Amino acid sequence: MTRSTRVRTVHVGDTKVLTTRHPHGRLSDPYHMVLTLSWPLFFTGLVLVFVLVNLLFGLAYWSLPGSIANAREGHFSDYFFFSVETLATVGYGSMSPASLMGHTVASIEILLGMVGVAITTGLVFVRFSKPTARILFSDRAIIRELDDARFLMLRMANERYNRIVEATATLSFIRLEVNAQGESFVRIHDLQLVRQRTPVFALTWTLMHKIDDGSPLFGLDRAQLMAAQCRILVSVTGHDETVAAAVYADKSYGAQEVVFDRRFADILELDAAGDRTVDMTRFHELEDMVFAAQVVRP
Fold it and tell me: Which residues contact 89 (CB under 8 A, 6 or more apart)?
């Protein structure tokens, strides 16, 4: 690896991929970088930038003797905290610029402070206003017999208990394949769903793909899934009526997360009053089937 490249981690769904890229690749798009930082990293970076800027301006004032009135000579803390007051346009009044150079540096810092406040406000607003979906996916995908056919199934739930209208789901099967020339490559197959769209996604939704002779899963057992490094990727998009914006969520299942011949535990029940209840405490639970075949076939 040369000095001009660097290894970075990219997450594709739940899959972690290491990539080599130029070191300036992420820094060349600082706006996107800031928006994708976690909240702890974002505020940590904000504090570090704030301290660094005030250290630099404090050093500038300190290097200009007599530039700040009432600042104690040799006490860098006075110049640092004067910079803090100037950058925030607070100005408590005990210290003030006392020379032309002092006024010049203070003017530059005030302009930088106003621009910085505007940029920070915009970034915080964008991060808070960015619409997100809180969709819970089952820990495992299952392959089971149902109505004399074989199905791949996984379960989802809307954790916010509001309505996502016109929700659409897609299911993809990713595996490593070898062509006639002996070249290995990753191929993505679309899996046809029994129901790909629902007008209202409010509680739970079970996605089902029928495994027939046209399905890329046909005839595969657990060992073959593992050997081909298979993954199942599910993505959901829809319109959240609360925030009036499109939302998106996804999850991927590795071959080790695909369970054969088990079923999801029932979570929809009727109480004594005849009302339907959903027991989310059993959302991830699986139950045994009567039989245990291990091959994906109709």
Answer: 110, 113, 114
